[in-house]
Design a protein that fits this description.
This protein has about 230 residues and is α/β, with parallel strands linked by helices. The protein has helices at about 45-55, 80-85, 100-110, 115-130, 135-140, 145-160, 175-190, and strands spanning about 5-15, 20-30, 35-40, 60-65, 70, 85-90, 165-170, 195-200, 215-220, 220-225. The protein folds into 2 domains: about 1-85 and about 165-229, P-loop containing nucleotide triphosphate hydrolases (Rossmann fold); about 95-155, no CATH class. The strands form 2 sheets. It has a 6-stranded mixed β-sheet, with helices on both faces. The protein has a 4-stranded antiparallel β-sheet with strand order 2-1-4-5, covered by helices on one side. The chain is globular. It binds adenosine-5'-triphosphate and magnesium ion. The site of adenosine-5'-triphosphate has 13 residues, from strand 2 and helix 1.
Length: about 230
């Protein structure tokens, strides 16, 4: 399968009064279309920072992030467009807009791209049904939903603009294990059936089971999972 993402020598240091923190330290890896890449590491190891760099929510101090060959960090790529259509984010705390319905949360990213209203709605309904969110739940406000329902809505939202890359930050962190399993299975399907490049960062080693590629993250450094056991 094609390399969707190539990260090379990526570094990010946060300056703080108490001392600088090297959150991401010379990270290199590749991830492919149709595959699930899982990065496991303890709290503070730099997982979220790495995902934010890949998703261009943070800018790196050094290094390359190539998406289908184009370096988004230095090429002058349109980063707003990149965030909207090339990557989709799934967060630990869902980050839905609580006063909006499930349907409205999923149409919002399409609205930002000025997709016609009818088309937005049709795609949102299709995605939500696929995630097992029925017609009643589609009209329910996010703050009335269970964690598992919220996360399935959040995945539909991440898919709204049909991105190449899905970045999931601790997607099961606030779910019980059975619900977490459902969410992981959905993410796996997005890779296998839709050909997405899915990257999951987590402290939950059990997610390694579904990984096509696996890495450990520690103190900002990435190592191959098989190499260090
Ligand atoms: N905006 C920031 N300013 C200063 N330091 C930061 C910032 N964001 C992260 N850090 C520091 O960078 C390091 C890596 O943080 P990061 O959030 O990437 O870790 P993580 O692996 O996602 O942890 P967790 O599992 O707890 O979510 C930590 O030491 C953290 O305190
Ligand atoms: Mg984190």
């Amino acid at each position: 399968m094609e390399n969707a993402l190539q990260v090379k020598n990526l570094s990010k240091t946060f300056k703080a009064k108490a001392g600088d923190v090297v959150a991401v330290d010379g990270v290199s890896f590749e991830a492919r279309k149709g595959e699930v890449t899982v990065i496991v590491g303890p709290s503070g190891s730099g997982k979220t920072t790495l995902l934010y760099l890949i998703g261009s929510l943070e800018s790196p101090d050094r290094g390359e992030i190539r998406v289908f060959g184009e370096d988004i960090a230095t090429s002058g790529a349109d980063l707003i467009q990149y965030r909207r259509v090339r990557v989709g984010f799934v967060f630990q705390f869902f980050n839905l807009i609580s006063a909006l319905t499930a349907l409205e949360n999923v149409t919002l990213p399409m609205d930002l791209r000025a997709v016609p209203a009818g088309e937005q709605r049709a795609r949102a309904v299709e995605l939500l049904e696929r995630m097992g969110i029925d017609a009643r739940l589609q009209r329910t406000k996010a703050n009335r939903m269970s964690g598992g329902e919220k996360q399935r809505v959040a995945i539909a939202r991440a898919m709204a603009n049909d991105p190449d890359i899905i970045l999931a930050d601790e997607p099961t962190g606030n779910l019980d294990s059975a619900t977490g399993r459902v969410v992981v299975d959905i993410l796996v399907k997005l890779a296998r059936e839709d050909g997405k490049c899915v990257i999951i960062v987590t402290h939950d080693e059990s997610i390694l089971e579904v990984a096509d590629r696996a890495f450990h993250m520690m103190d900002g450094k990435l190592t191959d999972h098989n190499r260090d056991g």
